[in-house]
Specification:
Elements: H1 11-46, H2 57-79, H3 82-110, H4 118-121, H5 127-132, H6 135-149, H7 159-167, H8 176-194, H9 201-206, H10 222-246
Helix pairs in contact: 1-2, 1-3, 1-10, 3-6, 3-8, 3-10, 8-10
């Protein structure tokens, strides 16, 4: 078995830290772009037009660059920072996938009885290839093959994760609000990654109430990215509580914002 230090026992903390860092980076970007937007005005106050008669070529070039940057900042502010939010979602979805893989790796390693699940009996590999793998690689291989068997990559929303977790004995409920938002986050992420953010029929089939039409460019608002982050974080808390229950520990239900109360009351 792998050394305990190699096990991703901090799977929940790693995702939580990534989510917090993402929020922090977005906040810094909002503040920074606001300052870029105001900079030409501040410079004009300090350097009235009549003083520009003696400005150097470098001064003029800097003034022009500040003006161009301010125009870009104005565009981002007016549109609600959609590109920032799109990139944040891409990173967060990757972190969510990695979190579930880490949990699966930990659980399959520390609960060897789970390997008796029928799905692992169907996995094919030569004895030689398997024996040449390290213990860590063997478990990771089983997880990837189980995901392939379940066609996880083609499942909608939390279904991408729940099939594998069910095979590991970690199945459970997901609050409908969390389920709905994670589905929308997944499908929005797919549009950003594969369709340059342009709405297609597949997206509308999965998320028919978003208000978009085919061909629209999707725009992730500040409110929407906040909802996505909250839903992902609460899904992580849901999985953490499943792990706690399976280990005979009481679930953690504290610290939930008032407008999200009850989302962890699932088993």
């Amino acid at each position: 078995m792998p050394d305990q230090l190699q096990l991703p026992s901090d799977w929940f903390a790693r995702f939580s830290e990534y989510a917090v860092d993402t929020i922090g980076l977005m906040q810094l970007t909002y503040i920074g772009i606001q300052q870029v937007h105001r900079l030409p005005q501040l410079v004009d106050i300090l350097s009235p037009p009549d003083e520009r008669l003696n400005e150097t070529e470098t001064d003029a070039a800097n003034r022009e660059r500040r003006s161009e940057n301010a125009d870009l900042a104005n565009k981002e502010i007016a549109s609600g920072f959609p590109l920032l939010h799109a990139h944040s979602l891409m990173g967060l979805w990757g972190a969510l996938e990695a979190m579930v893989d880490d949990l699966a790796l930990l659980w399959l390693t520390t609960h060897s009885e789970v390997r008796g699940s029928a799905i692992f009996d169907r996995i094919k590999i030569s004895v030689g290839s398997y024996e040449r793998m390290s213990a860590h690689e063997q478990v990771a291989y089983l997880i990837e093959e189980a995901k392939s068997e379940r066609r996880s990559a083609f499942s909608l929303g939390v279904g991408q994760f729940e099939g594998l977790l069910g095979e590991l004995g970690l199945s459970g409920g997901v609050h409908e609000r969390v389920r709905s938002l994670i589905l929308e986050a997944q499908q929005t992420r797919h549009l950003m990654a594969h369709r340059a953010g342009r709405v297609d029929a597949r997206f509308l089939s999965a998320c028919p109430t978003t208000g978009y039409s085919i061909g629209d460019d999707i725009r992730i608002s500040r409110d929407k990215i906040s909802e996505f982050i909250m839903a992902m974080t609460l899904y992580a808390r849901t999985l953490r509580n499943r792990q706690r229950r399976a280990n005979g520990e009481a679930p953690h239900l504290h610290g939930i914002p008032q407008d999200w109360e009850g989302v962890l009351d699932v088993t």
